[in-house]
Give the backbone structure.
Amino acid sequence: MHFKWGLPMDHPALLADLELAQQVQQSLLPAHRQSLHGWKVDFAFEPFAHVSGDYVDIISGPQSFHFLLGDVSGKGVAASMLMSHLHATMRALLSTDLPLEQVVAAASRAFCHSSLPAQFATLLIGRADRNGSVELLNAGHTPLIYSSAAAVHILPAGNIPLGLFCESRFAATRLAVSSGDTLLLHTDGITESCNADGEEFGVERLQSSFAAALQQAPDTLISHIRRDLAAFTSETSPPDDLTLLTLQRT
């Protein structure tokens, strides 16, 4: 066995490993532009480097579907490894049809036992069905932004992140989403992106960008937000992984 310790980061062997890791992570992503149980769903996923600590998934069932967006602490390969672990854990737990509170509690225990003490993950998970009922659980993640009756609302997190404590309880909430209304989920790489003066894009700018394109399809809405973010940050580089997930009830 030949170890690669001490090799420079631009060494061809390490770059090949990173490119392979990137391909593996891309294979875990859901399909773009999905139509599920009366909803249109799309996302954008932009790693800070080769691989990302952001986690996005869409899992369809017979009568409803789950959507998930998370963010593992840290960046790079270590964060991407934990992201893959969280992906597998959530897929396994959601196949059991347990309530969201029990699913997230079990995932938090697994994450706590398999990560270093300083590591954790935020997670926003939801279950949406055809009649517009959405069950949500936000474990320390960025707030959900959603439209209702032509207004835009913000629903903050109500639980702690996964893995902070090995035994934690979580609580879910419910939304009634009308036809044409849209949910927007994001990771903090979006809101913490800065312009040349060091000013963050922030939740309010994201909310305004979202409101300006409410009637657009999810893919168009995502493109609009990304253009606004690019115009704001101009020549500065993003500080973190960037992920957006939109769901629109048809």
